[in-house]
Amino acid sequence: GGGETSVRVERMFGLMDRFLKSDPSSLQKDILDHVEYTVARSRFSFDDFEAYQALAHSVRDRLIERWHDTQIHFKKKDPKRIYFLSLEFLMGRSLSNSVINLGIRDQYADALKELGFEFEVLAEQEGDAALGNGGLARLSACQMDSLATMDYPAWGYGLRYQYGLFRQVILDGYQHEQPDYWLNFGNPWEIERVHVTYPVKFYGTVEDENFNGGKRKVWLPGEMVEAVAYDNPIPGHGTRNTITLRLWAAKPSDQIDMESFNTGDYINAVVNRQRAETISSVLYPDDRSYQGKELRLKQQYFFVSASLQDIIRRFKDSHSNFDDFPEKVALQLNDTHPSLAIAEVMRVLVDEEHLDWNRAWGIVCKIFSFTTHTVLPEGLEKVPVDLLESLLPRHLQIIYDINFDYIEELKKKIGLDYDRLSRMSIVEDGAVKSIRMANLAIVCSHTVNGVSRVHSELLKTRVFKDFYELWPHKFDYKTNGVTQRRWIVVSNPSLSALISKWLGTEAWIRDVDLLAGLQEQAANVDLHEEWRMVRKVNKMRLAEYIEAMSGIKVSVNAMFDVQIKRIHEYKRQLLNILGIIHRYDCIKNMEKSDRTKVVPRVCIIGGKAAPGYEIAKKIIKLCNAVAEKINNDPDVGDLLKLVFIPDYNVSVAELVIPGADLSQHISTAGHEASGTGNMKFLMNGCLLLATEDGSTVEIIEEIGEDNMEFERSRLK
Ligand code: GL4
Questions:
Q1: Does 134 contact ligand 1 (Cβ within 6 A)?
Q2: Who has the most CB within 10 Å: 235, 403, 593, 604?
Q3: Are 632 and 582 spatial neighbours (Cβ–Cβ below 8 Å)?
Q4: Identified catalytic residue from 138, 347, 394, 680
Q5: How far is CA 333 from the centre of its chain?
Q6: Beta strands 191-202 and 223-235, pairing class
């Protein structure tokens, strides 16, 4: 009865402190409790890694409080929610970012000091969460941080790969790939939700069934697996808003397959079930290139299906009429990777919720927006029809039906221009009949986003010209950005302190435009001096790392010239290396007296090559071979060094960027959709050497011609 409940509630409130306290002694107590009860070590003997684990768990507790409050808040308010669907998130480390956003970094540092630990040292113990390839995936991570900070009711959905992006090991100058089993030592930043699970179906056949005097389609699947949710709380800065990145893992399903246990082969039946887990086992390491593999398609549908079941369940909790769906749900497609969601929403609305086709289509047209991240043709996904038909037979039918209606409409608008009709069709009738996922996404989305102004222009005038002429209103762009929380505050704490001191406020940590206030001090020599000191310390930190990783001693008085990003022909690491060879040759041919005029330089290159991308792998080998030659020439000494930094990832970037004097962004113009590394270097006060490509064009406008020099051959 009511009386009993209120006694219970009263008792529960009596037993808990309303919120965990964050003064140093409360923090110490919590950390030591986690050492003893979570990590199960003696509080008198634990190492740095165990201290990190306990620390992480105490931060996690604080995240969970805010995360619960956020859920309750939005459940009551029921706002329109934004769902960000992405197959890749490059989160990197979570500890520093979390305590900074929670506003308790200094308290933790003080608490740890008294216990004999240093915060930075423990933070180094954390491994990267590398569930993505490159810029696209890091953009997703930065967006989650910003959505949380700006108080959006947002959710990220993705896959919880057991193996993230491979570790790069260099042997004899060549790249070798090793598995990144990042979950080996547990992951305190996720919360396993054993009760948030959904069945996901594959294969089988589609049958016609009598229904309400008509016919309807029924998908009889041939395989079923279970999706289990793992929630990663994402705290905003200076707000209690803590949103969720929900990642799905595949588990064997109980609902089907019990048959196989009746055959008597118990062991094989168990082993077969276990195969379900392979769906979420490994991230595809191909950046900007589509491979057409069945497992990849399975991953895409697995995560789309689970996410939509979750989203629709949440909608139905407080709504009964699907016509309200577009008022409550926005689905953002991060590239074409999640675009099966379009066919899946149609399938659920028509086959399971029994809406008629046109009503369902009306809803679909209002809820999707599509961001495309590339102009490279090899990046555009084309799913072979045979593959789709066997894995998702009902979805293929739906895509055909969408295409039929769309082409009929199109004929009315553009007439019987068969060349154009076939270019614009969702179905490609080539040697291999396939589905053009970008066309599907454009036809069914209300907005098609580019990631920089020039990228958007290229989409409108080349890549998707036919579509732009038909639907100019759909085309838009939002130039990429990066979060200053990770790329200044976390990665460059001394610069962060300098900026706050000179601006007299920390408000720029939430509002990046306030950095413009530093302009007033642009000529202040004291500021210059402090900034130089900050850079010097960061260069020393980087030089130590380089020596530890490669044995190469570099001078911090040299200019650090950096190019770090995925290895790609269009990014022209080869051009950089040829330039370094030329520089070496010039030094060698110089009179000794002229050498004093040379600015000593440490060239730093880092990045991974897709395992099947032979030319990119050869570029890595070339870089290491050139480095070997230059670094061992005593005649050149500190005038020139070349370092290939192995296993480039988010944490390495956090270390390298603050220590760079010059950074290179020299893609062949027209190829880099945006680029985001340029912004990270720029906000750390680094000089850019760049082509007018992607977002660099807008950076040029922002900084103004006073702060740049054009190469003489530039045609104005
Ligand atoms: C990319 C683009 O190549 C890159 O220019 C852009 O900054 C990034 C985020 O929009 O997306 N596209 C793909 S694919 N990978 C990328 O990094």
A1: yes
A2: 235
A3: no
A4: 680
A5: 13
A6: antiparallel
Tens of pLDDT along 16-25?
766 899 999 9
Is residue 87 very low, low, confident or very high in pLDDT (cuts 50, 70, 90)? very high
Whole-number Å distance between alpha carbons of 134 and 622: 22
DSSP of 215-284: EEEEEE-SEEEEEEEEEEEEEPSSSS-EEEEEEEEEEE-SSS-GGGGGGS-HHHHHHHHHGGGGGGTB--
Nearest atom, ligand 1, residue 373 CA = 12
**ipTM value > 0.95:** yes
Q: Is 288 in the pocket of ligand 1 (CB under 6 A)?
A: yes
Contact 675 CB / ligand 1 (< 6 Å): yes
Same fold, 78-93+128-477 and 489-707: yes
Q: Which of 322, 303, 302 is nearest to 312 (CA)?
A: 322
Cα dihedral 345, 350, 354, 355, rounded to 10, equals: 80
At 433-461, the pLDDT tens digits run 999 999 999 999 999 999 999 999 999 99
Give the start-to-end residue ranges of the domains of the chain.
Answer: 78-93+128-477, 489-707
Amino acid 1: pLDDT: 45
193 is catalytic: no
- How far is it, in rounded angstroms, from Cα 65 to Cα 242? 9
**Active-site residue 373, yes or no?**
yes
Rounded mean pLDDT of 246-253? 96
Would the CA dihedral through 392, 398, 402, 404 be positive or negative?
Answer: positive
| DSSP structure string for 535-580 | HHHHHHHHHHHHHHHH-----TTSEEEEEES---GGGTHHHHHHHH
Distances (CA, A) of 458 to 362, 379, 464, 690: 29, 15, 8, 19
Query: Is 411 a catalytic site residue?
Result: no
Enumerate long-range contacts of 7-10, CB under 8 Å, 24 or more apart: none
Q: Which one is the CATH code of 489-707: 3.40.50.2000, 3.40.50.410, 1.10.3720.10, 3.30.70.420? A: 3.40.50.2000
Which has the closest alpha carbon to 686: 660, 709, 653?
Answer: 660
| Cβ(660)–Cβ(686) below 8 Å | yes
